[in-house]
Amino acid sequence: IIKVKHAPLPSWGNKTIEARDVRQIYVKEHVSQGKNSTTITYEVHADTLSAGHLKLVSGIDSSEKALFIEQEIEKFLRIKDTPVSGEFPRG
Fold it and tell me: What is the SS3 assignment for 63?
């Protein structure tokens, strides 16, 4: 099971996903244009068999942190890393 919990207050973003339902974990870059600046953050997503693509975590401030989270979840679930359309490129 993958559990995503937002604390200290409950959130609509809390999720529970069966591990066997996960096809792939991947990172996406999120660009926000403000009036005077651009902010880039990263999100970790899951591609699932039953619900399609789900955002697990957002607002990560570096690609390295997001890619580390992806790698650790894949390692724990024994998922081979394969490319997903639109994901942030490794390397």
Answer: helix
Tokens 């999100």 appear where?
43
Q: Which two tokens stand for residue 15?
A: 């999720």
Nearest to 13 by CA among 58, 47, 50: 58
Q: What is the pLDDT of residues 11-43, one digit of tens each?
A: 666 788 888 999 999 999 999 999 999 999 999
Q: Write down the residue that tokens 């993958």 correspond to.
A: 2
User: First vs last Cα of the chain: how many Å apart?
Assistant: 29
**Domains located in the chain, CATH noted:** 2-77 (3.30.730)
Question: pTM (2 decimals)?
Answer: 0.86
Pick from 44, 39, 40, 41: nearest CA to 27: 44
Residues 6+ apart with CB under 8 A from 73: 2, 25, 44, 79
Place of tokens 């619900």: 51
